[in-house]
Automatic annotation (TrEMBL):
InterPro entries: DUF1272 (IPR010696)
Name by which UniProt lists this protein: DUF1272 domain-containing protein
Stored Pfam families: DUF1272 (PF06906)
Length: 75
């Protein structure tokens, strides 16, 4: 099951699990649409392709909440 990380690893933008606009690689590195575009849809961590992350809504989000662990590291 996807961890549904809550933020962009590059800029820190919030990426709620129930809203479209997040991009992930096969290791679940997570980026906002603007950063994914700036990265030419390639993960800077592993070189993998960045694809649209599916959303998780309603009862599924309530039963399987997104992680709260943020990956953005300033500086």
């Amino acid at each position: 099951m996807l961890a549904m990380r809550p933020d962009c690893e590059r800029c820190g933008t919030d990426l709620p699990a129930n809203v479209a606009g997040a991009f992930i690689c096969s290791f679940e590195c997570t980026f906002c649409a603007e950063c994914a575009e700036a990265l030419d849809d390639r993960c800077p961590n592993c070189g993998g392709e960045l694809l649209d992350r599916p959303t998780r809504t309603g009862d599924n989000l309530a039963r399987h909440p997104a992680t709260t662990e943020r990956k953005f590291r300033q500086g």
